[in-house]
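User: Hello! My lab partner asked me to get a predicted holo structure for this protein. The small molecule is zinc ion, SMILES included with the sequence. Please write out the structure tokens.
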Amino acid sequence: MQVGSFAKRSARLVVDFALPPRCAGCGLIVDEVGSFCTLCWTKIEFLGAGGCERCGIPLEATDADLCAACLAQSSPVDRMRAAVAYGEIARSLALRLKYGRKTALAATMARFMAVHLDDYPEDSVMMPVPLHRRRLWGRGFNQAVLIARALAERKGLNVECCALIRTRSTPPLKAMNMAQRRRVVSGAFAIASGKDVAGRTIILVDDVLTTGSTASACARVLKRAGAERVELISWARVVRPAHLMR
Ligand SMILES: [Zn+2]
Ligand SMILES: [Zn+2]
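Assistant: Hello! Below are the structure tokens for the protein in complex with zinc ion.
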């Protein structure tokens, strides 16, 4: 046996011993890095490949390709996907990443998000949904950037963090309905001067997808600047029972 490889293996053993992988949901020790324990696993609703072709929302057993909302209204976002339904554990991961800067959680999210991504042209870029600079100063980082970096590494794509900017600080959208949200975020984004997105495929990255109004506002700006295609990938999405009705 080569001394080098033995040393490497011992080093890995030491690291493994020092840092046993933990469940991303509850912290219980698990076998694999970036995974969940059995109990957390059963509590997470992973979103499958089926569902609405455009927005990915689960559909009831039916032969329709699009959900009622997508049939009713066109969207500048060509495709939206999320890894999991927004629930207790999905929320916990999102909050711990947002306020605790736990980069390992971004890697875990990216692992489950990556399976929902297609293959893209080489010049495609991942763009985290930007924070307004005032919020960025307050928090010190944008959680969507951490996720985008982890995802881009898996997909072999570039991350472009500065092309899309938030020109206006928007209040939390939590308590607003769809129309209010759309109004609040419209005109809140812009392309930074000197940045060119013409002809590119852009994959927007966010932690939580609620109604898609933020993604639409971003996509509208990108398309206006000539982007060929805009998709959104998020860690979790709010799956409303109303969306399941046709
Ligand atoms: Zn767990
Ligand atoms: Zn849809």
